[in-house]
Design brief:
The structure is a single chain. The protein is an alpha/beta fold and about 240 residues long. The protein has seven helices and nine strands; from the N terminus they run βαααβαβαβαβββββα. The two termini are about 20 Å apart. Helix 5 packs across helix 6. A nine-stranded mixed sheet has the order 2-1-3-4-9-8-7-5-6. The longest helix has 13 residues. The relative contact order is 0.18.
Length: about 240
């Protein structure tokens, strides 16, 4: 069986501009994730905003991506619209898409959701308890009924997204706020899983449960069958 082709995309800005982020992720969050997710059945490549003129997401790269992870925060507007169009089209054709943390405001995710995707937030070293509310789901395989992140940015309701097809995780924070922190959607033939942990000044991507969730989600979001990913391609299966 051929390995799943995974591209991890990261804005890769805070790691250069914020000492706290650099201390947590000296090589960038994308490289931290790539190392943590390394497995025989995953072929992982990385890309970032300023990798090249197309942010590392050329037609060829996306044509060879089964699942795309996306982390962005303060430079959503710098992502080219034609690259956004390309990502959205690939998702609709069957590519899996995993927006992480503040990628809730990324151009691809807001386009795919059709809503503002806004929420309440607070950066105050909040303790976060992530509750597994869908214990039979493939994304929660091997994940306990709850796990704790000692410090995480608070995300709270109301989260302005469409009604999720499945609610997988619900997070609680010290201030009493709750948040739909793991949600699935389908757009066209593509599966989408939004997952909340991952603020750059904290260490969520070093947490074994967070990594297990993301690894499970990659395998869950894989295209249902081999498809021809190219601009304007039919969404019919390749025969």
């Amino acid at each position: 069986m051929n390995p799943l082709r995974v591209t991890i995309w990261n804005e890769f800005y805070h790691e250069h501009t914020d000492e706290r982020a650099r201390a947590n992720y000296p090589d960038g969050m994308h490289e931290c994730l790539a190392r943590a997710l390394k497995a025989d059945d995953l072929e992982i490549t990385t890309a970032w905003l300023e990798k090249d003129e197309e942010h590392g997401l050329s037609e060829e790269v996306l044509a060879n991506t089964d699942v795309l992870l996306w982390w962005g925060h303060c430079r959503h507007g710098d992502v080219r619209d034609d690259v956004t169009d390309r990502v959205v089209a690939r998702v609709q054709q069957g590519m899996g898409f995993l927006p992480l943390h503040s990628a809730h405001m990324s151009k691809p995710f807001t386009r795919l959701m059709g809503t503002p995707c806004t929420l309440r937030w607070r950066e105050n070293d909040d303790r976060c308890v992530v509750w597994n509310v869908n214990a039979g789901h493939p994304i929660t395989k091997g994940v306990p009924l709850h796990f704790v992140l000692e410090k995480e940015e608070m995300y709270g309701e109301y989260f302005f997204i469409p009604e999720p097809e499945e609610l997988i995780f619900l997070s609680w924070f010290d201030g009493g706020q709750v948040f739909r922190s793991g949600c699935t959607f389908t757009r066209g033939l593509g599966k989408i899983f939004y997952f909340q942990p991952g603020h750059e000044v904290y260490r969520a991507f070093h947490d074994e449960n967070v990594i297990r969730v993301i690894a499970n989600a990659i395998r869950w979001a894989k295209p249902p069958q081999a498809r021809e990913f190219r601009a304007g391609a039919s969404m019919e299966p390749v025969v």
